[in-house]
Amino acid sequence: MTRLPMMRLRPPALILAALGLGCLHAMPASAAEKPLWELGAGVSALSFPDYRGSDRSDTYAMPFPYVVYRGEFLKADRNGIRGTFFNNDRIDLNVSVGASLPVKSSDNAARQGMPDLKPTVEIGPSLDLTMWRTDDHRYKLDLRLPVRTAITVDSSMQDIGWVFSPRLNLDVRDPLGLPGWNLGLLAGPMFGSARNHQYFYAVAPQYATADRPAYEARGGYAGSQFLMAVSKRYDRYWLGAFARWDTLKGAVFADSPLVKRDYYFAAGVGVAWVFGQSSKLVETDE
Asked: Can you tell me the distance from the alpha carbon of 229 to that of 241, in angstroms, rounded to the nearest whole number?
């Protein structure tokens, strides 16, 4: 699979989902009035391996919508798509979303003769706890606990288990004195169910060869992830970029014949244009 780094939907809600800016958070500032909603569109360029552990990579150009909504009980902004479940500025309950792109096995030497990997979607809750922040909110450290169920996206959807990715996330507003920029740093382990690992790393007996023995994947530790992202919102457009490094050392499926390297690097850039916004203003700490 080419898995888009797992993240909450946040705004630009689907922009960061497409880019995989899983660590990018808006830094709270002083309250200000902003439009109730904003709409736009953008394009991103992403470079990913076929799946975690693959030795083959591709570059993708992906369009995406830009959506921001600042309602009283439902919000879709840089902090995620969320409802007001807690009246507490240190606890957030968000929607966590992940995705993977399809992989054509005939184009990947390790999977020759095996079924193609279908695109997948992961969705579930994420409990986010603010561990530390400075008085001016320029620095903020969160513990994020997203749990998602995964399904294939095709005519016959298939449940392929669950994933859990606890991580620490540090947000920095105006890094190095650069006004308006946001820097995010994220790191943490990844875990998955046996069903999830089977989908991506198992080799059924009928697909075994001399160089690819039959293999059955187990559930458990799935490696660790490190991600850095930067972004800036201008008056009518948004810029963002990320770099991500994953290690599979110690993963329960590391000995799968489909794992050709125990690390991978991914990166992407994106730009979105804002072409519409509400005339109604609401107060926000975004």
From this structure: 6
Residue 279 lies in a domain: no
Give domain status of residue 282, yes or no: no
Tell me: the pLDDT tens digits for 17-37? Answer: 444 444 444 344 445 688 888
- For residue 219, the enclosing domain spans 2-274
Whether 10 is covered by a domain: the verdict is yes
Among the listed residues 29, 66, 15, the one whose alpha carbon sits nearest the alpha carbon of residue 174: 29
CB 169 within 8 A of CB 191: no
pLDDT tens digit sequence for 217-260:
999 999 999 999 999 989 899 999 999 999 999 999 999 999 99
* Total number of domains constituting the chain: 1
Distance CA 62, CA 45 (A): 6
C-alpha dihedral sign at 162, 166, 167, 169: positive
Q: Which residues contact 215 (CB under 8 A, 6 or more apart)?
A: 201, 202, 203, 255, 256, 257, 258
Q: Is residue 202 a part of any domain in this protein?
A: yes
Q: Residue 204: how many CB atoms within 10 A of its CB?
A: 12
Please state, as a whole number, how many other Cβ atoms lie within 10 Å of the Cβ of residue 235: 5
Which CATH number does the domain housing residue 57 bear? 2.40.128
CA 143, CA 152: separation in Å to the nearest integer? 28
How far is 203 from 187, CA to CA, in rounded Å? 30
Q: Residue 131's Cα: distance from chain center in Å?
A: 21
Task: Give, rounded to a whole angstrom, the gap between the first and last alpha carbons of the chain.
Answer: 34
Tens-place pLDDT, residues 62-114: 888 888 887 766 655 555 555 555 556 788 888 888 888 899 999 999 999 99
